[in-house]
Amino acid sequence: MDSQITLRVDGAAHPLAVDTRTTLLDALRERLRITSPKKGCDHGQCGACTVLLDGRRVNSCLVLAVTVGDAEVTTSDGLAVDDVPHALHRSFVEHDAFQCGYCTPGQVCSAAGILAEARAGWPSAVTPDVAADTVELTDDEIRERMSGNLCRCAAYANIVPAVADVARAEGVRR
């Protein structure tokens, strides 16, 4: 049974009819031809499909499109403003934080999400003082927070400094 929905993706509204079992990832890729989020494992374990849903990172392969409602979906492409790459895009290039690039859009969206989480003071499993008002975004914090995004090429050694540089530039506590 199809449902009429409107997906707001990267600032544009997209009305479409979808089967109620359609994932957000499949709606983005197959119906809207937005190919930034990738289908990796299709089980929420690799992070290649990571997008931001109202600023919070989600695995789009685990979200049903009909549940998105009025939320804003932001893909890695949508982080750019007027075709100017986001600071994370530039930092990933400067730090050579990708190899084949398949996981990179998900990595970039996840990195944008962790910067927002740190600014909001959300602790992670490695935060020493979970009651603190601020989070120090150390390399260990970045590694822990990015652990849901896998890279088969093993560019991890360059991803952490790429995220750290943007965190520093944006004034996220380091």
Automatic annotation (TrEMBL):
Signal peptide: none annotated. Pathway: Alkaloid degradation; nicotine degradation. InterPro entries: 2Fe-2S-bd (IPR002888), 2Fe-2S-bd_dom_sf (IPR036884), 2Fe-2S_ferredoxin-like_sf (IPR036010), 2Fe-2S_ferredoxin-type (IPR001041), 2Fe2S_fd_BS (IPR006058), Aldehyde_Oxdr_Iron-Sulfur (IPR052914), Beta-grasp_dom_sf (IPR012675). It comes from the Bacteria. This is Xanthine dehydrogenase YagT iron-sulfur-binding subunit. GO terms for molecular function: 2 iron, 2 sulfur cluster binding; metal ion binding; oxidoreductase activity, acting on the aldehyde or oxo group of donors. Residues 3-79 form the 2Fe-2S ferredoxin-type domain. Keywords: 2Fe-2S, Iron, Iron-sulfur, Metal-binding, Oxidoreductase.
